Amino acid sequence: MKSADLRGFEEYADFDSAFKSAPEEPGVYFLRLKSGKPFSRIKGETDIVYIGSSKNLKRRFNQYYNPGRTQWTNRKIHRFVKEYGHDSEFFWKKISSDRIKIEEYNLLRRFEQEHHEKPPLNGADSRILKSEFQEDLDIVDNGITTNNI
Asked: Domain 8-123 belongs to what architecture?
């Protein structure tokens, strides 16, 4: 899965301006290497290094600039961007807050199916997402659908 394969992600910014230009709205996003520069995975190639979601994209991107000591995902992305910031950019799409976790789960599942692993900076395991949202989601072979959401 490469970023060019994803539909609806038309808004983007480099890391240094993402927190300024992102909306204060819910959405899903991914961090990629600039210009879609691919790198190898267990199976295939990708330019995506992280997939995430947030109820407030602007606030979420700002957290990557100032991660707390216990926010390990924020710290991991902050370290990556400090080293590769000039070569990375965020893409996002706004989506209703009741659908963001479903969309994130489906993107992560698709990535795992195609590459046999998660994006390099993702820490959220599909099993955690499944257990966290089991009551609200119907897990099916090709993704998830809503039950109670």
From this structure: 3-Layer(aba) Sandwich (3.40)
Domain ranges (residues) in the chain: 8-123
3-state helix, strand and coil shares in percent for the chain, rounded to the nearest 5: 40, 25, 35
More reliable by pLDDT, 51 or 142: 51
Helix 100-115 to helix 126-133 angle (10° resolution) is: 150
pTM of the model: 0.76
In this structure, what are the phi and psi dihedrals at residue 105, rounded to the nearest 5 degrees?
-60, -45
* HSE-up (13 A, CA, CB side) for residue 148: 4
User: Residue 43 is encoded by which pair of tokens?
Assistant: 């199976």
CB atoms inside a 10 Å sphere around CB 5: 10
Tens of pLDDT along 88-123?
888 999 999 999 999 999 999 999 999 999 998 886
